[in-house]
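Why does residue order matter? Because the sequence determines the fold. Keep that principle in mind as you read this record.
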Amino acid sequence: MENFAAQELLHSSDSPVYAWNERTSEIEFIITEGRSIIPVEVKSGKRTKAKSLRQYILKYSPEKAYILSGSKHFNTDRNISRIPLYYAGKI
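Structure:
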């Protein structure tokens, strides 16, 4: 799933894709949109807790964040958008 997401993110943007990790927390992808830095977490299941993403948000307060997952549904809660993996190239 991470390889698919990486290919889609790289193909859909001219900006580089980064990763972030600190201690036991890891965010698979960090993308830029203008001057904004956006974390993108990839989860294989339909139910996701995304503890690392929550740690990143607490530390850096990004304007928005994405969770790509195996779910077919879109959902936005505050600044976190949960979207299907197949939509990775559209973010």
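The chain has one domain: 2-90.
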